[in-house]
Design brief:
The protein is an all-alpha fold. The protein has 7 helices and no strands. Helix 2 crosses helix 3. The N and C termini lie far apart (60 Å). This is Transcriptional regulator.
Length: 138
């Protein structure tokens, strides 16, 4: 079996394990919601799923983050533990009730609106990051 077909099989099984249908339309939608570059086409993702091509490393990283596997596993397979291991951030334990509420509301937004909120916050952070006066914690 060639490496492109093996990649396609790993991609499909990772999508299924994450609870997604292995259809090109699903992959196109979910990938483009998470990728900040030029959107990929239906035909491109179809080639990934059929084993006709393998995405660039940058796109492979986005796929891996989305599907909670390592880029190495998606690209090469292997017996390596394929779960992405990220340490818990300390900020998660020190949120105020207001911050918890804000994050809960954010999580209820559809992905396109989350992307907009992310861009707005990022813009404010770049514009006012050094001059922002943060309120005292309660």
């Amino acid at each position: 079996m060639n490496e492109k077909i093996m990649f396609a099989e790993r991609l499909k099984s990772s999508m299924q394990a994450a609870g997604y249908d292995t259809r090109p339309s699903v992959l196109e939608r979910e990938f483009n919601l998470r990728y900040w570059g030029k959107p990929i086409t239906f035909q491109a993702v179809r080639r990934w799923l059929r084993g006709d091509s393998i995405p660039s490393q940058e796109k492979l990283q986005v796929l891996a983050r989305w599907l909670s596997v390592t880029p190495h596993y998606l690209r090469y397979g292997g017996a390596e533990d394929n779960a992405v291991k990220e340490p818990q951030g300390q900020w998660e334990t020190s949120l105020t009730r207001e911050e918890h509420h804000l994050l809960a509301m954010y999580k209820t937004l559809p992905q396109p609106q989350r992307k907009i909120v992310h861009e707005v916050v990022e813009t404010f952070s770049k514009a006012y990051g050094d001059s922002l006066v943060l309120p005292e914690r309660e």
